[in-house]
Amino acid sequence: MSIESYNKAKEIIEANEELVDDFGEMQESLIIKAQKELGVDFPDEYKYFLSDFGALTFGSIEIYGVFKEDFENSGVPDAVWATLNERKLVNMPQYLVVIYNTGMGELLCLNFRDLNDNQEPKITSYFAGFDESAQKHEVLYESFGDFILDMVKEEIL
């Protein structure tokens, strides 16, 4: 279950405070504004992440979130800014929300067209600049909770 995965990830993050750089807790009103701007309803575990951290750098990983009201004039690691930017620059589909950049041309996204058993978006890959017909949207994680747990575990190994 994804919320259990998120809670385990949060425990690891809190136990390794020296690796943490975050934006702090985000107000629900900003999370709601971000959802409206992107036209999606974030899954619960991503809302918890935003409420707990805003956005997060944990060691060398940078997980995109929400931390600034002025989405248009923000930057990395702002998920809203990154998503709006990709939609404008490469016509990324509206059903994707960027949460991580591998640095190798691959973006990891909440995919609101590919839902898990709990009706939450799976985490899929997107390669900016490639035509939509060439995108495989490979499922990398069943949920945001599974994604963040795997990422933080890998970072502390």
TrEMBL record:
Listed Gene3D superfamilies: SMI1/KNR4-like
A Pfam family matched in the record: SUKH_5
Domain Knr4/Smi1-like: 19-150
InterPro entries for the chain: Knr4/Smi1-like_dom, Knr4/Smi1-like_sf
Protein name (record): Cell wall assembly/cell proliferation coordinating protein
Native organism: Listeria riparia FSL S10-1204
